[in-house]
Structure formats: structure tokens, C-alpha cells
Amino acid sequence: MTDTITPPATAATAPPARSRRPYRVGRGGRGWLVGRGALLLIGAAVTLFPFYAMVVLSFKPTGPVTFPDSLLPWPFSTEAYDQVIGAKSMLRWMWNTLVYAVVSVVGVLLFASMAGYAFAKKRFPGKETMFWSFLAMLMVPYHVTMIPTFIIISELNGVDTYWGMIVPTLANAQAVFLMRQFIASLPDSLFEAARLDGCSEWRVYVSIVLPLIKPILATLGVFVFLWHWNDFLWPLIVGQSIDMRTLTTGIASLQQENVPLNMLLAGSVVAFVPIFMAYLIGQRYFQEGVSTTGIKG
Amino acid sequence: MVALPESRVRGSRPARGPVRRPRRPSAREAGTALLFVLPFLLLFALFRFGPAIAGVFLGFTDYTIGGDTSWTGLENFRRLVDDPTFWTALRVTVVFTALSVPLSMLASLGMALLTRRAFRGAKLFRSIFFLPVVTSLVLAGVVFTWVFADGGPWSRAMGALGLPAGNWLADSALVVPALVLVSVWSRFGYGMLILLARMQDIPAELEEAALTDGASAWQRFRYVTLPQLRPALFFVAIIETTVSFQVFDMIYVMTGGGPVRSSYSLVYLLYDQGFKYFDLGYASAVGVALFVMTIVVALIQRLTLGRDK
Questions:
Q1: Where is the composition biased (Basic residues) (chain B) (predicted)?
Q2: Which one of A128, A136, A178, B119 is at 20 to 30 Å from B111 when CA atoms are compared?
């Protein structure tokens, strides 16, 4: 598929306009509509099945799981939830995950918006070099930098601490890039006016820049939260003790200890619900974030 | 994470151009600007730039935590070449990527085409298809372990179709295909959204014209839609390849690399060597190999899929 992009020669001479007319269904007509509906329903069923299984099987009493009758909603039991939520470590993991995700969101948004503002609207020596070195580093796979980062954190006695887990993730170059792009599109006059009124630079940032960049703060915030909530490898190597696990590394550890399926799934549901709620409420940010910035899901 | 072409970024504007004023920044202006950049700059230097350099550098040493470190030159890479586990991990990673990227892109394209036109429920379907993207692969892995279990839904379905039943995750030939299916499930919604965004930008006149000329649905897709989608497909291919090369979470949860290393990926090897055996120099060498692979494949994709005209 390299160079066969020759559109039918007549395309250029075809009558223009009529572009806003509803799309005309091709020769398929009704058959196409039915076929499309069927394919979409199958796709949706396959996509949703694991979620259904996760929820239904988490409400089963402990015991052998048989297929297909286990997929019925009964026998119904909250036994697994009682045990999982009753376990002290699960609550601790939830708290750890929350701290990891929320503090990282605040930190990434703060530092990236400050840097993005300077890169977009200020002039200073070394600006271009710095910015391009940020971008160049996006090429280096995370796993190459992960090992030295771990060594630095362990030399600083940051293993098994919140700060050791959080601080390295604040160096998010993609966030700075997106911030800079967004802030660059804002007219300079907005900042100049405030500056002429005698506002300090910090004041301009807090009361002019931050309110104006709310859309990108929301989009980026949603994704940074998602990445951290679902993050696995970094918390796995930095949070080594039971007390410092997150929900993902904690559930993975339970699974390796052969905890019964209903309890694993109850834990999974508990870990999934916050993301699901965030997705229901902030769908627009998730989907627009991907379509307008290409941010990785 | 890949930087996007500027045109796709909301509110983008060329960085250079008439906006830039010729006068030199005053010392004071430059000073305050640097203060704004400084916190990020320090974090970046310490946790990205430094480690990226050090990560490559470590590959040429025998660094272990607490031990003496000496320069060993190409020793780690020689070891890598002689290590059958490395070749296994490389093969697993390449096969996994070669299967999951095209399949997931095919699913992305199919679902984007199906939900392209506004109809009642189109948004709901898009939201459903994107849901796995926001779901942790650890949680998904727990459920899929059951889905693939012997006597579970997948083995029953395969049995009914006359295909190999039994637990695919325990079968050395079928474990990678099983993981590929999970990966497709988890990733296709992302590509779908990228392709949909691009499809909205295709001028309706193009297809109208083709329709007037009597082009069939297939011809319209093949000669109008597909060429217009090429940059977006290229973008998705790069992202998905990078994601696939780094597959780890679901393997950790679903198979632990087994049975007998038949689902052992490069990042799994890096994790084992670095954080189980604390051979961080050797693990870094694996990281360098991954880096080189990523660049080579990105270049190949650039030259084929990403070529202009």
C-alpha cells in the first residue's frame, strides 16, 4: 500500500457542495444496517464480557467456579467483599494507590504547566535546546531509564516510601509538551495586560494562566490519574513491602498466593470502580484527550 | 509516548515564526522564566535525562547493588547473544508484536468504520470499546486467567468449534496467541478513537464524488478513506508497536512467563535480571536491546507505512 493513491480521475470534476447531506447508504441499504448492528452488538458483547464475569464471579461464595452456570447471578454472596474489604492490607493498598495517583497528578500538572508557560511565552537562553532534549527523551523506552532511576531512589533511601514512588514520575516531558502547545495558542495580550497592571510573574501564572488552561489541566489530569492508578512495574519494584503495595501490585501478589478467585475478583472490582466512575463522569476528557492530543491511553 | 505532529495537537501553532520578537530577553525576564522551568528541569535532569544516559552506560558495566562496579565493555552484550533466554524473550516479544499490532489495528479500523456515522447509540458503542483501554491489565489479567482456564468460556467455545480446547495459557504453542487476544481486547479502542478523529476530517466531497462515479463501498474505502487515514494509521502503528514491545503486566499476572518461558518477554527478562537477580548491568543491556529494536522498527515503519506518496 505505497503509491496507489490515485483517486478516480473524475473526482476533481465531480459536482461540489451537497457535503452536509446525510451520508447516503450505499448499495447495501437495509442489509448493511442490519449487518452493522449485528457486528457492533457482537463487538460490544465480547468487549463487555470480561467486565460482566469480573462482577458476577466476585459475588459468588468461595468454591469451585463452573462454566457456564457460574455466570448466572445466583447463588449470590458478598462473602468475598467482606473478606477483601475486611483485610487491612487491601485498605492500605487503596490508600497507597490514591496517594500515588493524586499527588502525582497535582505535581505533574503544577510543574508541567509552569514549565510549559515559560516555554510558550518567555524567552531565555537555552530554551530551544532544553525543549528538544525533552522531546528526544520521549524516544528512550521507559525501561531503559527505570533501572538507573531505581538505583538513584534506592541510594537516596526512597525504596518503600511514597516520595520515592512519586517524585520520579513527576518528570513527565509529554505533559510539558502538551502544556506548551496549549499555552502557545493563547494570545500574548492576556498576559501583557496583567503585567502592565503591575502583576508579578507568579501572580500572572496563578490568576491568568491557570484559569485559562483549565481544559488541558482536566484532560491531562485525567490521564495522569489513570496512568498512576493502573501503573504496575514501577510500584512493583519501588513498593516492595506489603504495606507499600498499590492495588495493582497487591492484587497481583494475592494472585500469586493462590487466593480464591471470588476474592481476587472482588479486589479487582474494588480497584476498578474508581476508574469506572471517573470514566463515566469524565468520558469527554478521556475520549477528546485521545482524539485531540493522541495521548496514550 | 510519542510526540504528535503539531497539527493534531489542540490549539497548536508553529513555534517559530513572526511571533518571535527579535530583541534579546532582558536578564530579569530570562531569570524569572528560568525559575518557572527550574523545578521541572531538575526533575527531568535527575530522573529522565541522567537515567537515560546512565541506562545505556550501565549496559557496559557489571553494576550490582552494593557491589563494586567495573567497565566490562561489550561483555554484557556478548553474554546476551550467547544467552538462549534472551533469544527466547526476543522471539516471544517479536511474535507477540507481529500478531497483536496488525490484529488490534484491524479491529480499530473495523470498529471506527462501523461507528463512524452518527446514529443513535454510536457514542455508547465508542464508549464501550474504549473501556478496556482505561482498565488495568492486572485486573483484566485476573479475569482472563479464568476466561482461558480449562473448562472455561474460551476452551468451551474452541471445543465447540473443533479448535484446540483446554487451557491455552498452559499450552506452549497457544499461550502467545491467547495473550495477543487479551492485548487486542485491551488496545483496539485507542486506535479506534484516533482513526475516528481522522475520519471526521476527511472531506465528505471526496466520498460523494466517488459515490457519484459509481465506486463500490470497497473501492471508496480502498481509494478514498484508506489513503486519507494513512498518517493516523502510521501513528497508531508506532504507538501500538511500542506498547507491544514492552508487554509485561498481563504476562506477569496470567502466565508468569510460562509455560517453560514460552511467554517470556524482553521486559520480563529485564525485570528478572534486574530486580530478582539484581544484575542491573545485564538488565540494562536488555534495555539497550529494546531501545535499539524500537528505533529500528520505527524507522522501518517510517519508510513503509509513513512514506509520503
A1: 10-25
A2: A178
